[in-house]
């Protein structure tokens, strides 16, 4: 069997592969203790948020369906599940983003410790407290990148008929891209790679990174699994950094 390689001579692996690696890596000896805080933050925030959401769906769905024009009411049996998926996609991304803001310093530390274990080359010791301003600035850059694009998509949603049909697909792809940026950013930022350079690097392998983010996005909609996806995604993205980007960007 022929093993495919890309232009960098690296074996072609899908974004899904790196998520499966994440599930393996969170259990490594010496890594598990750095998983605990991101995991607890995600369980408390995402678990509570989705419990509240499921209690609100009965009120929100009729409100959303009211934007469907009368001549499309015969499609309501198809548009109703689209409306549910739309809410789950938006809600899942927004609250996973909030969770990542809160957990960002701990996610960065998890990425740092895992990279050291995978490469045998520890990063210089730094204080998590000292790094918080830089990490929060990075989270702000992601938010500034996200908001105008998200608003444009939300405006599209309110175009009768067409918007409600196309929006979930475009939002899913956009969320997948943003989640890939979110989780890949931790190992990139640990090496002070600029946000602009990180986006450019990830866009050169956009299909793989959208695959990665798409799996994360799907997991955020699945009860129970969504509680554990944050540290898994951090570990998967770190494995991708080590295998695909580290050598190119820092020459090691």
Q: Could you explain the architecture of this structure?
A:
77% of the residues lie in helices and 0% in strands. It is an all-alpha fold. α3 (76-119) runs antiparallel to α4 and α7 packs antiparallel against α8 (229-250). The longest helix has 44 residues, at 76-119. The mean pLDDT is 81.
Helix/strand order, N-terminal first: HHHHHHHH
Query: What is the helix tally?
Result: 8
Describe the oligomeric state of these chains in a short phrase: single chain
Taking all residues together, what is the mean pLDDT?
81
Beta-strand segment tally: 0
Taking the sheet with the most strands, its summary is: none
Helix content: over 70%
Rg for CA atoms: 19 Å
- Strand content is under 5%
Q: Helix/strand/pairing class, anyone? A: mainly alpha
Distance between the terminal alpha carbons, to the nearest Å?
Answer: 30 Å
- The low-pLDDT segments are none
Q: What sort of overall outline do the alpha carbons produce when their principal axes are compared?
A: globular
Q: Briefly, what is this?
A:
By secondary structure, the chain is mainly α.
Provide key terms for this protein.
252 residues; mainly alpha; 8 helices; 77% helix; globular
Topology:
Elements: H1 15-25, H2 32-65, H3 76-119, H4 128-157, H5 162-190, H6 195-203, H7 206-220, H8 229-250
Helix pairs in contact: 1-7, 1-8, 2-3, 3-4, 3-5, 3-8, 4-5, 5-6, 5-7, 5-8, 7-8
């Amino acid at each position: 069997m022929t093993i495919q390689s890309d232009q960098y001579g690296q074996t072609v692996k899908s974004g899904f592969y790196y998520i499966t690696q994440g599930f393996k890596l969170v259990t490594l000896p010496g890594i598990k203790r750095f998983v605990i805080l991101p995991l607890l933050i995600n369980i408390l925030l995402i678990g509570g948020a989705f419990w509240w959401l499921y209690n609100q769906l009965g009120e929100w769905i009729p409100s959303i369906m009211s934007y469907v024009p009368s001549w499309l009411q015969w499609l309501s049996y198809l548009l109703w599940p689209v409306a549910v998926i739309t809410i789950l996609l938006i809600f899942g991304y927004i609250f996973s983003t909030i969770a990542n803001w809160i957990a960002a310093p701990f996610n960065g530390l998890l990425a740092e410790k895992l990279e050291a274990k995978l490469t045998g080359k520890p990063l210089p010791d730094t204080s998590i407290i000292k790094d918080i301003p830089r990490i929060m600035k990075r989270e702000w850059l992601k938010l500034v990148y996200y908001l105008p694009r998200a608003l444009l998509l939300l405006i599209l949603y309110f175009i009768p008929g067409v918007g409600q049909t196309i929006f979930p697909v475009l939002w899913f792809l956009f969320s997948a891209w943003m989640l890939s940026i979110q989780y890949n950013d931790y190992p990139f930022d640990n090496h002070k790679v600029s946000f602009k350079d990180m986006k450019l690097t990830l866009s050169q392998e956009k299909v793989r990174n959208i695959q990665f983010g798409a799996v994360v996005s799907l997991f955020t909609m699945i009860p129970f699994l969504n509680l554990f996806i944050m540290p898994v995604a951090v570990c998967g993205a770190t494995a991708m950094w080590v295998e695909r980007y580290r050598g190119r960007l820092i020459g090691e």
